[in-house]
């Protein structure tokens, strides 16, 4: 079992990586969508003779490579989506003030002084909100 410090470090690292994790989910979801569009949008080859230009077959069926792309993307999504869900479940336990502090500090990587200026609160209040939010997420 991981210690509290190790769990806190893991949570903070995941929060810092949240934007990257979301980007990876979107990336692999887009690969699946593009491949499915290519599969279902391709018409059948014409009945006329095939004309080879530049040593390529313009009517070549690329379904196998598209299915491989979908398979690869689904494997990647199995890696990234649970991490995203894990973070979002914990973020969902926070109230609006705590969520803002965590978002600005970990996701947008802003300083506590900057957060205090934007939210028009004291720096110590920002620190307390972050600490309270981390504790709440660790106890989820």
Automatic annotation (TrEMBL):
<feature type="domain" description="RNA polymerase sigma-70 region 4">
    <location>
        <begin position="91"/>
        <end position="137"/>
    </location>
</feature>
<dbReference type="InterPro" id="IPR036388">
    <property type="entry name" value="WH-like_DNA-bd_sf"/>
</dbReference>
<dbReference type="InterPro" id="IPR007630">
    <property type="entry name" value="RNA_pol_sigma70_r4"/>
</dbReference>
<dbReference type="InterPro" id="IPR013324">
    <property type="entry name" value="RNA_pol_sigma_r3/r4-like"/>
</dbReference>
<protein>
    <recommendedName>
        <fullName>RNA polymerase sigma-70 region 4 domain-containing protein</fullName>
    </recommendedName>
</protein>
<dbReference type="Pfam" id="PF04545">
    <property type="entry name" value="Sigma70_r4"/>
</dbReference>
<dbReference type="GO" id="GO:0006352">
    <property type="term" value="P:DNA-templated transcription initiation"/>
</dbReference>
<dbReference type="GO" id="GO:0003700">
    <property type="term" value="F:DNA-binding transcription factor activity"/>
</dbReference>
């Amino acid at each position: 079992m991981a210690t509290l410090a190790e769990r806190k470090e893991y949570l903070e690292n995941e929060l810092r990586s949240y934007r990257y994790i979301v980007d990876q989910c979107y990336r692999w979801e887009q690969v699946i969508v593009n491949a499915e569009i290519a599969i279902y949008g391709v018409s059948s080859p014409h009945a006329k003779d095939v004309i080879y230009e530049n040593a390529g077959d313009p009517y070549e069926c690329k379904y196998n490579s598209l299915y491989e792309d979908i398979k690869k993307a689904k494997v990647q999504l199995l890696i990234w989506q649970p991490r995203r869900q894990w973070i979002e479940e914990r973020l969902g336990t926070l109230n609006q003030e705590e969520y803002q502090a965590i978002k600005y500090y970990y996701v947008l990587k802003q300083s506590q002084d900057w957060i205090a200026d934007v939210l028009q609160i004291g720096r110590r209040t920002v620190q307390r909100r972050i600490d309270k939010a981390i504790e709440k997420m660790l106890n989820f």
